[in-house]
Amino acid sequence: MSWDWARLEAKFDGVEIQRVRFITVAGTWSRPEWGFQADVARGLNDERFEWVPVEYPASFGPINPPFPGAPSYQDSVQVGVEATIRAIEKSSAPFILSGYSQGAEVAGRVCIELIEGVLRHRRADCLGSVTFGDPARQATDESYGGGTGTGISKLEIPRGIKRVTYAVKGDMYCTIPEGMTGDQMHAVYLALTRMGDGKINGHTALLQEVLKILNNPLAGGIAAIDAIIRALQVAQHGAYGPWVPHAIEQVARMAAHN
């Protein structure tokens, strides 16, 4: 049944149709209303949807901190997960998750909570997830953009929620390869995302791996050099504008199956 016919019948039956909540999480250093996920929300422009942008630090520790004492990336992500869970629990309406970069990882971790965590009771209400430059990209995700590989966080998300993600070639956050290069990129990711929380000091093996890559790439071999080259391709992380219209269509399809 199309949404127009559903609305027409609802008017005659006196039934109010519950809108789909489009819950979005912005990327690092961004306000809730900034980013590709926000562009999708604005592009929906449809009374079927209610846009719910999530407030959270979106910080990266001491790197370009948005405020004094900003939490590490990892701690910021956790705050984002908790804020998104609260946003979901505020309404019994069906919802779709969306995020960019750090916000995409937040969405991925919320998917875990929906499948096997504290949000299991709301799993049926989640119509899907749409992400851009996703550090938690899974090999099983429905992917667009031409980038191969998976997310740099190596987060494992059980299957059970429709996940659509956009990954362009050269975006290291969502296209790390298998093997040593990918492992070393993941090691750098772990080190950098823990800056500011004081936890990295206890990870001697991790620090040694990162120092080997950053201070003496030749000692780490070709894989280490490749990891650094990929790390310099951060510019591609912002190349998702052309995919926003496609994402809008994907969100509309998810809502239509509600």
The domain count comes to 2
Taking the alpha carbons of the first and last residues, their distance comes to 10 Å
Number of strands: 6
Numbering strands along the chain, what is their spatial order in the largest sheet?
Answer: 2-1-3-4-6-5
Radius of gyration: 19 Å
Q: How are helices and strands ordered from N to C? A: HEHEHEHEEEHHHH
Helix content: 25-40%
Tell me what you see in this structure:
With 258 residues, the chain is an alpha/beta fold. It folds into 2 domains: 3-170 and 237-256, Rossmann fold (3-Layer(aba) Sandwich), CATH 3.40.50.1820; 180-231, no CATH class. It has helices spanning 3-13, 36-44, 73-89, 102-116, 180-193, 204-215, 221-231, 244-256; strands spanning 20-25, 49-53, 95-100, 126-132, 142-144, 163-166. Helix 2 (36-44) crosses helix 8 (244-256), helix 3 crosses helix 4 (102-116) and helix 5 packs across helix 6 (204-215).
Secondary-structure topology with pairs:
Blueprint (H helix, E strand, L loop, with lengths): L2 H11 L6 E6 L10 H9 L4 E5 L19 H17 L5 E6 L1 H15 L9 E7 L9 E3 L18 E4 L13 H14 L10 H12 L5 H11 L12 H13 L2
Parallel strand pairs: 1-2, 1-3, 3-4, 4-6, 5-6
Helix pairs in contact: 2-8, 3-4, 5-6, 5-7
Put the structure in a nutshell.
The protein is of the alpha/beta class and 258 residues long.
Quickly list its features.
258 residues; alpha/beta; Rossmann fold; 2 domains; 6-stranded parallel beta sheet; 40% helix
